[in-house]
TrEMBL record:
Domain of life: Bacteria
Assembly with partners or alone: Part of the 30S ribosomal subunit. Forms a tight complex with proteins S10 and S14.
Protein's organism: candidate division Kazan bacterium
Family: Belongs to the universal ribosomal protein uS3 family.
GO biological process: translation
InterPro entries hit by this protein: KH_dom, KH_dom-like_a/b, KH_dom_type_2, KH_sf_prok-type, Ribosomal_S3_C_sf, Ribosomal_uS3, Ribosomal_uS3_bac-typ, Ribosomal_uS3_C
Pfam family, one: Ribosomal_S3_C
Keyword line: Ribonucleoprotein, Ribosomal protein, RNA-binding, rRNA-binding
Family annotation (PANTHER family): 30S/40S RIBOSOMAL PROTEIN S3, SMALL RIBOSOMAL SUBUNIT PROTEIN US3C
Protein name from the UniProt record: Small ribosomal subunit protein uS3
GO terms for cellular component: cytosolic small ribosomal subunit
Signal peptide, first to last residue: none
NCBIfam families: rpsC_bact
Length: 216
C-alpha cells in the first residue's frame, strides 16, 4: 500500500539538503525546540514576506539564520529595523546559550520556481475572495513562462463557500514523485476564509539538469 512522504525529506542527501545544519549531543533537544521557535517566529512576524524556507546553522557560539524570500524589503524594513527586531526576539528566548546571532536575507530570483512562494500567493488571493480556479490557472501559466518542467496545485476545503468540502487539482507537465534524483519543491499553506480553512499544496519540478542533456 502506498504511503505519503514529504518530497523534501524523501530526497535528503541526494538532491536536497538539511534545513538545520549543526550537531550537539548535550543540547540536541533544546536546539531542536529553538529552531522550531525561530521558524515559527519568522513566519508570524513576516507573514506577508513570502518566505520559502529558513536555514539555521550553528558553529560554536555562532548562530546563523538565513531567510529565503521573494520580498526581502518586507523583512529588512527601514534602515534594517526589521532584522534588528528579529535578532532581539531570537536572543530573548535563546538565553541558555550565549549565541552570536546573525540574520541573512537570501532573495529568490525566480519566485515561480518556489513552491512556498506560489502557495503563499495562492492563499493570499483566495483570502481576498478571488475565484480559486482563476488563481490556480494564473499560477500555472506564470510557472510555464518560467520554464518549469512540471507543476501540481491541490486546493481542498469549502471551495467558493460550498457546503460540502472537496479537493480540486490543477497540473501541467510531469511530477515524478517516485524519482529520487529529480528535484521537487513542495509546500503547504492555509488560507483562512469566512467559510473555514482551505489547504493549498504545491509541487514544482525544476527543469532537467544540463548533464542529462549532454548524455542524450
Amino acid at each position: 500500500m502506498g504511503q505519503k512522504i514529504h518530497p523534501h525529506l524523501f530526497r535528503l542527501g541526494v538532491c536536497s539538503n538539511w534545513r538545520s545544519r549543526w550537531f550537539d549531543l548535550k543540547n540536541y533537544g533544546k536546539f531542536v525546540v529553538e529552531d522550531n521557535k525561530i521558524r515559527s517566529l519568522a513566519m508570524k512576524k513576516f507573514k506577508k514576506a513570502a518566505i520559502a524556507h529558513i536555514d539555521i546553522e550553528r558553529f560554536g557560539n555562532n548562530l546563523t539564520v538565513t531567510i529565503h524570500t521573494s520580498r526581502p524589503g518586507v523583512i529588512i524594513g527601514r534602515g534594517g529595523a526589521g532584522i534588528d527586531s528579529f535578532k532581539k526576539d531570537i536572543e530573548n528566548f535563546a538565553k541558555f546559550a550565549k549565541n552570536t546571532v546573525t540574520v541573512n536575507i537570501q532573495e529568490i530570483r525566480v519566485p515561480e520556481e518556489s513552491a512556498a512562494v506560489v502557495a503563499s500567493n495562492v492563499a493570499e488571493q483566495i483570502e481576498r475572495r478571488i475565484p480559486f480556479r482563476r488563481v490556480a490557472k494564473q499560477a500555472l501559466e506564470a510557472s510555464k513562462q518560467a520554464k518549469v518542467a512540471g507543476m501540481r496545485i491541490s486546493i481542498a476545503g469549502r471551495l467558493n463557500g460550498a457546503e460540502i468540502a472537496r479537493r480540486e487539482t490543477f497540473s501541467f507537465g510531469t511530477v515524478p514523485l517516485h524519482t529520487i534524483k529529480q528535484p521537487i519543491d513542495y509546500a503547504f499553506r492555509t488560507a483562512y476564509t469566512t467559510y473555514g480553512t482551505i489547504g493549498i499544496k504545491v509541487w514544482i519540478v525544476t527543469a532537467p539538469k544540463q548533464e542529462s542533456k549532454e548524455n542524450k
